[in-house]
Give the backbone structure.
Amino acid sequence: MILVVGGSYQGKTEFARTEFPDAKYFNQLHLFVKKRISEGKNNSEILAEIRDVIKDGDWVIISDEIGNGIVPLDENDRTWREVCGRIMIELAKDATEVYRVVCGIGQRIK
Amino acid sequence: MITLIYGGSSSGKSAYAEDYVCQSNCKNRYYLATMLAQDSESQERVKRHRNLRAGKDFITLEQPYDIGNTVETKEDSIILLECMSNLVANEMFREGKINSQAATVSKIINDIKELDSKVAQLVIVSNDVFEDGLEYDEYTKDYLRALGKINAEIAKMADKSVEVIVGIGVER
């Protein structure tokens, strides 16, 4: 699996489609995580589900980095960015390659 | 010698910083905790960090401000300061008063220099809180300006600056 992360509107999807045109995509992972949290799922349940989805074939996971701001006032938002961060760290360990995209430019960091 | 370890919330910067410190040859490992844990959520975070450090031979010092004088001079010591974002908030909004951005920046930079002169290595964890694109009130903006300046000053003084992204350290 290849993990592509970066801020919003940085050209992550375009970067991934150019670099890995034949892969399967799991895009907007951060929103998937948010949805599962709202359904009452915890960190490890969500991670297990993601790992199950991508178990066959060559996958590219794309996610916004949402932890680079002031601590949110809303408790659900704080939970979301924490769970999202922890899940991304685990996925980065699983990944064969990790890219960080800024202004459309992808930097390979693993 | 200063090392800056920088990253967003839940980016894996603490685990990275602890591994970094544990790989050094310094005999005395200090963990300088700057967070004032006043609510249950903060206390949970403190607990998580304590578990993360367990068995790594850290001497924990809790110091929410005035960090310059927290240790005796020892040549074989390494300090992990965690984290700058809390320290800046504590110094700026201190004991019911609000200190100016300029005063906060110069106080903290002086304290860092003093602390650095006492130990072989000072490892500072700081936080990327600058990229949510939201508009904040003047107090928060002042805080952001102070933290941004301090981060830049530390990076200038540091031998090494590392940004941690999804648990991976990238040298800057």
User: Anything to note?
Assistant: Chain A has one domain: 2-108.
